[in-house]
Specification:
The protein is α/β, with parallel strands linked by helices. The chain contains five helices and 13 strands. The protein has a single domain, classed as 4-Layer Sandwich (Metallo-beta-lactamase, Chain A). A hairpin with a 2-residue loop joins β1 and β2. The termini are close together. 44% of the residues are buried. InterPro entries: RibonucZ/Hydroxyglut_hydro.
Length: 229
Amino acid sequence: MPMKGSGTSELREIDRWEDGVGWIAYPDEEMQRASHAFVGDDGGVWVVDPVDADGLDELLAEFGDVAGVVVMLDRHKRDSAAIANRHDVSVYVPDWMTGVASELNAPVERFGRQLADTGYRAITVRDSSVPPWQEVGLYHEASGTLVVAESVGAAEYFLAPGESLGVHPMLRLFPPERALGDLEPERLFVGHGEGVTSDATSALRDALDGSRSRSVSLYGKTLKMFVAG
């Protein structure tokens, strides 16, 4: 199983809800790179950290016209420029995120505490040099929808035994409690793996609360996978 898929995609839909949808372009890859699109309060479709796939434009068209593409993590440029250019829209990057806009071959717009008129609040999840990590979260409080790019995820390598949602292995000892701990999402979508569509607040709090105590079991599991592979 490759870490990242390439070549011909096989789009698998995940995380569909009334105002959006998610997909994994290469379902067999180990990283399980997940992308999402949601309808904002402005009526436009906003595409988040996208990996392109055959049939994607038809999937997005079910929800309306694309209004923008969003980069939520400095290393999640993915196919954002290609999709933005195809839909004649801009790529939106947090106003504090560095080293991203110059690498995008597409129009770029910056956003601050709110993502345009979508109703989604921008949360600084992490902005650090050690490890190098710039990540924004998007939270629509009225609908209880939270999107997190990387700090928590549901791909296998995020998860200690018994977990359905886990903190990233590199952040296990320093989980994003200050940024995410007070939120009460009804649904939570992540950049790796399928999201949590019921009892998301409990899943998030369990992931944060158990991050440190379950770190040894996660690292042990990862070592066994590495040796077996």
